[in-house]
Amino acid sequence: TESFADNRRQCSDPNDCTRGGLDVAVDALGRIHILDRVTGEVRVMQAKARA
Questions:
Q1: How far apart are CA 51 and CA 32, in angstroms?
Q2: Helix, strand, or coil here: 5?
């Protein structure tokens, strides 16, 4: 499934989208923070612990 479906629907041309977008940052612990500029949601991703 599409992780950022609302964001994708904002762009009719994925090569020229000015109404959507994602901002991404990495913190000191290596977690990835993704801001979806369409929904205003922030998602935090981190590596899974090794088994």
A1: 21
A2: helix
Residue type, 2: E
- Supply angle C-alpha 29, 35, 36, rounded to 5: 150
The per-residue pLDDT for range 2-20, each reduced to its tens digit, is: 677 777 777 767 676 676 7
Any bridge partners for residue 45, and if so which?
32
Collapsing DSSP to helix, strand or coil, 9 comes out as helix
3-state DSSP assignment of residue 1: coil
Angle at CA of residue 39, ends 43 and 1, nearest 5°: 65
